[in-house]
Amino acid sequence: MGEQSLRGYLAVWASLLGLTAMTVTMASLDLGTVAIVVVLAIAATKTTLVLLYFMHLRQEKRVVIKILIPLVIALLAVFIGLTYTDVLYRGGG
Amino acid sequence: MSGEEKGGRVDADRGRIGMWLFLSTEALLFGGLFLLYAVYRWRYSAPFHEASLELSRAFGTLNTAILITSSLAVALSVRELREGRLAGAKRFLAATIALGACFLAVKAIEWGVKFEHGLYPGAKVLSSRGPGQTLYFGLYFTMTGLHAVHVIVGMSVFGWILALMARGGVDADRPIKLENAGLFWHLVDIVWIFLFPLFYLIT
Questions:
Q1: B137: containing domain
Q2: How many domains does chain B have?
Q3: Which chain B residues are closer than 8 Å to A12 by Cβ?
């Protein structure tokens, strides 16, 4: 398995810290509902960086692992998304 | 490639696949809690707003930086080990454990302040604020508590691996234990990446 360079790791770390600073700034701007979307999008971006570089998914050769991750994400999206919409549109709340 | 070498690689692959399967169950465990949070935030949006203002953004941001840096440290430890530099791997792993301890220390201070203010499940002050805020702090303590347990487990496993490194049980030829423990630690980092905005940033 090819190893990443030290500089590569440091760049990912700096990006993660930069995104953290960005998300804290965004949240303090009082953007309402937009803030929730932006803040979650930044969290998803940070997660992608951690998965690809720190957890070495970019160099992963086993297809089983590569398939597993989108599968888990899809499963979470279905059970969180569908349950949430169900609660949202149920009469009387 | 000799048969033995190939066998070793296949074993390492299996170990890694097993770890990813375990991490998937962890994602579902926390996913269930995130769902609870989403539903109650919608149902009690005003009390959740009030309650989230009680949390310290400075502490939350500090702990995010600490945990991200600890993830870097363990990634570098794995890199050192794979490239045959055992001393470097040990140093970075010790740094990871120390950063985990810093994270827990900040968490302990935060929790301490909440307890002082009577903002814990079952407290009279919290009960008087109604069901919305009670749910918020219930979820806050459950989710950050479960996360903190994961941090403690991760640190313990790293401590065990440090001991194995000293005895020659983990080295460049057998890095799988450190690699898998590292994967676990990164997942704990990812969980925090979501806990932080949900509890500290969205108000």
A1: 3-201
A2: 1
A3: 72
The per-residue pLDDT of chain A, averaged, comes to 90
- Domains of chain A: which residue ranges? 1-60, 62-93
DSSP secondary structure string for all residues of B158-192? HHHHHHHHHHTSSSTT--HHHHHHHHHHHHHHHHH
What was the pLDDT predicted at B4? 61
Residue of A24, A33, A38, A83 to mutate when probing chain B, most B C-beta within 10 A = A24
The separation between the first and the last C-alpha atoms of chain A, rounded to the nearest angstrom, is 52
- Residues A27, B20: C-beta atoms closer than 8 Å: no
Q: Where does the pLDDT of residue A93 fall: very low under 50, low under 70, confident under 90, or very high at 90 and above?
A: very low
Question: The domain that contains B94 carries what CATH number?
Answer: 1.20.120.80
pLDDT at A63 over 60: yes
Tally of CB atoms within 10 A around B22: 14
User: Is residue A92 predicted with pLDDT exceeding 60?
Assistant: no
